[in-house]
Amino acid sequence: MLAVQSPSRSAVSRLAVARLISATGSVAASVALALALYQRTGSAAWVGAALLAGFAVPGVVNLSTGALSDRLDRRQILIASDLLGAACFAAMAYAGAPWLLLALAVIAAAVAAPFLPASGAMVPALATPDDLPRANSRLAVAWTLGRLLGPFVGGALVAVAGASAAFGVNAVSFVISAALAATVRGSFRAARHDEHRAPGRGEGIRLILADPVLRALTLGFVLVDVGNGLVMPAEVPLARGFGAGALGYGALMAAWALGGIVGSHRAASLYSRREEPRVVTWSAAALVASLAAVPVAPWFAVVLAAFAGGGVAMGVVGVGEDLLLQRRTPDRVRGRVNAAHIAAVQFSLAAPLLFSGFLVDAWGPRAVFALAACSALLGVFALWKLRAHVPLRRRA
Q1: Three-state SS string across 86-117, please?
Q2: For residues 191 and 209, what is the distance between their CA atoms, to the nearest angstrom?
Q3: Structural domains in the chain?
């Protein structure tokens, strides 16, 4: 891990604000894209294609470009990713044909992909090892808050000014995010490695498979997020089954996001006092309990509570995920490992979308939530192996 020459919480704060602005604008634009595609085509297939691209395209890109974060200045990658994203969404504001909108959305998803691996890899250069939990917690809170605000911002912009305005606002948000990233000072190049040996394609995956901790961590999160992907198409029918309709669906999304903010904030103190593998494992188990509560919930209020609890659990788990990746991975390969891990998780979210809607139609939303709980439980078993490989450290 790189030594932090001048730890600055203000640098983490600026990066967190950049994530907040970027996440809010991106989610707002995705809402606008879905509404615009459906309005112009009358087909849910176009909306589904846009959603699938949002998960799958970054995964494909990260698999092939993960080495960028280990060869280039990571802050410059953030700036370039934001500015290219701004150009894509500025073009979308003037695009009329549905195929052009979708094509630009795919390009935007591709250029945005390097942002998360690079920003995650540079966090240890902004915080001391003892302050890593707090730094990752603040970044997670900002990201989750942005994803909570995004749908409201996107819906309001489309209602008041149209989808083009939402795309334009997102373009501006990317420019602001790039400007904030540019103010973060420090050395963000990876530690020197063998320059004569170019990293091969898929090297991040090989590094994960070769390390028992990274292997268990990635497998665990893949299985957990397969469960999360399974329930996405089940949420609207679930709310409708309780007679809650669109308002109930919105309440479910808000409960999950608010829980995520609470969990991400609480994670700072949890990981400062206890070992990361223990907290990650038990928090993932709490997520399983939340998913398993939905199929047997007698009232919608119980479902809301389960979603809030699941959001809290995922918030805590997500911070632990970042911590374990940062602590376990040498700086010289952290970008590749981050990119491969994120790609695996993105694919695990995207893959269930290919068939989960059919499962909901055939079995009903409650049965799909039960299946998701089973997948997440398998993830807990995989994460449990972390405790055998990561030595426990005494904390003050």
Answers
A1: HHHHHHHCCCCCHHHHHHHHHHHHHHHCCHHH
A2: 22
A3: 7-185 (1.20.1250.20), 201-396 (1.20.1250.20)
CB of 376 closer than 8 Å to CB of 227: yes
Q: At what angle do helices 44-65 and 9-41 cross, to 10 degrees?
A: 140
Q: Which residues contact 395 (CB under 8 A, 6 or more apart)?
A: 272, 273, 274, 275
Task: Specify whether the CB–CB gap between 115 and 333 falls below 8 A.
Answer: no
Q: What is the pLDDT of residues 86-133, one digit of tens each?
A: 999 999 999 889 999 999 999 998 998 888 888 888 888 888 888 999
Tokens at 34, concatenated: 């879905």
pTM of the predicted model over 0.90 = no
Q: How far is residue 61 CA from its own chain's centroid?
A: 15
CA distance 290 to 360: 19
Tell me the three state secondary structure of residue 266: helix
**Largest alpha-carbon pair distance within the chain?**
63
What residues contact 270, with CB distance under 8 A and at least 6 apart? 133, 279, 316
* Chain centre distance of CA 65: 18
Residue-wise pLDDT tens digits, 28-47? 888 888 888 888 887 767 87
Q: Who contacts 116 (Cβ-Cβ below 8 Å, separation ≥6)?
A: 338, 342
Check: CB of residue 91 under 8 Å from CB of residue 104: yes
By the 8 A CB rule, do 124 and 2 touch? yes
The one-character DSSP state at 200 is: P
The whole-angstrom separation of Cα 27 and Cα 167 is 11
Contact 387, 277 (CB under 8 A): yes
